[in-house]
Amino acid sequence: MTSRIRVVRFDKKPPHEHRAVRHDWIRRNRVRNLDLQRKSALKTRYNISPERYKQILAEQGGVCAVCSNPPVGKQRFLAVDHDHSCCPGPKSCGKCVRGLLCQRCNTALAYFQDDENLLALAIQYLRAYANRSKDQMGESNRMESTGESENPVPVQLLGE
Hints:
Strand content: 5-15%
Number of helices: 5
Oligomer: single chain
């Protein structure tokens, strides 16, 4: 006959006191806790180790792969970018990791849904607007020098 071991809890504290102790520990160990959460997220979401993250970061020179800016402000880390055609959704197999991006570039790629054609259209739009702006600037400078009055020319934006 096997005997059962009965565990008696002597700290019969109410749940709110346990929560207070837990929150106090988290507050005292904030940096350690953030590092543990980051390591866990790298493994569970992207299937890469912290060492692999550091290796990619070193290969990129510590900056975003798109805009070449370092992480700033509250963003201490660059986001892991992966190929969504391989692994749709927020999780990755680890083999399709493309690089590390700042929050702004990562969000921009997400809005464009990794669609190269859509990005190309956006580039065309920006270039067309930049050219129109330069033309208008040249026209206004010419008018100022000749004393002609400025008649606004309606500009039709793409997609209107």
